[in-house]
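Our collaborator T.R. sent over the components below with a one-line note: 'Predict the complex.' Nothing else. No constraints on interfaces, no templates requested, no preferences about which chain binds where. So this is a plain run: every listed entity goes in together, and whatever single assembly comes back becomes the starting point for the next discussion.
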Amino acid sequence: MATDTRGLTTEPAVRVRNLHRSFTKDGGVLNGLDLDIAPGEFVALIGRSGTGKSTLLRALAGLDRDVAGHGRIQVPESVSVVFQDSRLLPWKRVLDNVIFGLRGADAADRGRKALAEVGLAGRERAWPYQLSGGEQQRASLARSLVREPQLLLADEPFGALDALTRIRMHALLRQLCEAHRPAVLLVTHDVDEAIVLADRVILLDAGVVDTDVRVELTNRSRSDAGFAELRTLLLDRLGVAADA
Amino acid sequence: MTATLHTAPVTVADTTDQRVVRRRLGPGHRIRFSFWFGPALALAIWSIGSATGLIKPAILSAPWDVVVAFQDQWVNHDLLGNILASLQRSLVGLTLGVVTGAVLAVISGLSRFGESLIDGPIQIKRSVPTLAIIPLFIAWFGIGEEMKVITIALISLVPIYIHTHNGLRSIDGKYAELAETIGINHGEFVRHVVLPGALPGFLLGMRFAVTSSLLGLVVVEHYNAVAGIGYMITLAEQYGQTDVIVVGLVIYGIFGYCADSAVRFTGRRVLAWRQTLEG
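Returned assembly:
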């Protein structure tokens, strides 16, 4: 159980116990996974392909009703998902996408504020196809944040972006998470991205937690010795030689 | 590490335009009034044919004779009344058919139970020519307006149903997934995701429905009509007036053409979010 700054024990935002999920009869994707995420904690989930990262995220998002399995999942009331593709509805203008499903008279104002926060002020009336890939993903971030989720689930949200846009998006995401403090579960296949962004990195293997490390770096630059050490450790656990 | 930083040179006004040119494979920019080129050409061929005597008046009246006949019908035989009667008939029938077709398509598209009830009968109805059902409708609804409107409604319902259903089912499943994570109810899902997503299909269906409703109109107006373009044609047929028949045909053609243009124009406006070759 996590402790907050005053040393008090707090209820975790996410609690997963003995989670099993399988797509075929013979092999499970998740095999009895346990996981706690504290409120406001940023967790990056890494692992080789097919180790159950997305399966776990989809289970937390409640998008796996047709998948066989059992276990216990507890998530906050307000959960928002950022997908790898922005999933902006092509027939809604950017602002309408951001406030899609939002209730209340001030929805449009909140939407405008969220768009300004992700640097898209002035693009409210644009159609999604008129935005670049990075802008679309920022709009989808705004759509998630405007709902003030207690849990933000992100499934490789920067996977389809170019390297430069990615770096900018990393800074933006950290900044937004510090301002809004949701618990975050970020699925990524990029070890560097995990270390740059997260408070804690969890490595899945064969459907259970293989490694669970806290990132306690004061300086998150790639040239930092601690960064390199953590990177080597994680790459090693992934079965990749760090300096190949 | 050495790095060379280049500052931007002072630019001089230079309007040289040298670029790589690629052959365009899409249809390119829209041409103004392009819509009317084809019809104008057809009219030109018809006029030249009639003027040179290649097209005999007994086969097809000359355009100018048709204009005279039009004037005669307008002044002496209440052509406007006939046009309005036909328009009203096809509009009422079309509206009924479009609304019913769209509602059935949404129900059958969103609910497996609805699909099992609705889709079969419509596919069966589709393979039975509507015109073959008319005798039965006359037995059921009599020979008056009711039978006419219902026939037109049924004939325009099918394309609306088929294309709306298809458009709805082609909506990417990932949008439904997104809607689920956003936590909206069924009504909001229909309004914000299903209807706009199915709109391109619906509009395509609309183009077919509009012309189908005119087809239905032509047929039903041959049964005991006392007003309408079909009635006018039937009369002209009895008296061997080809020019009046052509007046009727031209009016049907204008109806269809205007209605189709209206649907296409609406489509371009409401589908502004799409980036397609339509342009």
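Summary for T.R.: The interface with chain A takes residues 174-175, 177-184, 188, 192-193, 196-197, 199, 272-275 of chain B (CB under 8 Å).
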